[in-house]
Amino acid sequence: MNAGDEVVLSRMEHHSNIVPWQMLRDEKDIVITVAPIDDIANFLFDEFEKMLSEKVKLVAITHISNALGTITPLKEIIAAAHRVGAKVLVDGCQAVPHMRVDMQDLDADFYVFSGHKLYGPTGVGVLYAKEDLLNAMPPYQGGGDMIRSVTFEKTVYNDLPHKFEAGTPHIAGGIGFGAALDYVENLGFDNISAHEDHLLAYTLDKIQAVDGVKIIGRADNMAGLVSFTMDLAHPHDIGTILDQDGIAIRTGHHCAQPVMDFFDIPSTARLSLGLYNTELDIDRFVDGLHKVNRIFS
After folding, report:
1. Domain 189-296 listed as CATH 1.50.10.20
2. Which residues contact 11 (CB under 8 A, 6 or more apart)?
3. CATH class of the domain defined by 6-186
4. What is the C-alpha to C-alpha distance for residues 139 and 216, in angstroms, rounded to an integer?
5. Catalytic residue numbers?
6. Closest by alpha carbon to 94, among 16, 178, 38?
7. For residue range 77-86, what is the model confidence (pLDDT) as tens digits?
8. pLDDT of residue 144
9. How far apart are CA 108 and CA 27, in angstroms?
């Protein structure tokens, strides 16, 4: 990438898909543009498409927003980017645990996800990329296993994927991650998706009975995640009170401060649904929100 080349992000990106491009901007004077969302967190595809030109070299986009649950129209985004010659990198960390993802169908150039989001160990993950791109790219680290031969005059790099795996790999993490992948594959992604979709509908129905709750993000296509605020309590207080009853949610800006700025709020409380949750969990969660109101009223 050279000065003036453009990277397109979306308003919903996690900091991990914003900061690296800002670092590259500082290094190479590239341009970062941001595709918009509407006030219920739908990705505005028509507006995104207007931003595309031959200056755009990369679209770096989330598959599912970790802060809002929005599922982006990824296949259409990738096709549109390819029409202007841009490559596409997808942050799939939130998508892979919850739905079937088909690399050949999506046609993404790069797709990344992490182990711990998929019920595996921390410190390990996956970078998928098209073979021709990886062959064209130089190694980013030097060391053992990424070489075929070394002399003081020249180093010949190893074949893929070893070219990008310098040094001793995270062996234990890889084995644990493999076990986690086997686990979710055996459960079946269609079963997982159907279960979580039911729980999401159940949650959205039940949470409306709680006074003062405002859901942040109600996109037309959502994953099993509900981000919300309450009139009487700060998200950190909500999380603390629920935690005392053994109910684990996430509170804060979720490493997505531009999203919080868009909705003009400092933070949200976030309920994340998984394959292990039940309706009883949701009932206890809603009871906990009533308790929050009682304490702060």
Report:
1. no
2. 34, 35, 36, 37, 258, 259, 262
3. alpha beta
4. 41
5. 255
6. 16
7. 999 999 999 9
8. 87
9. 26
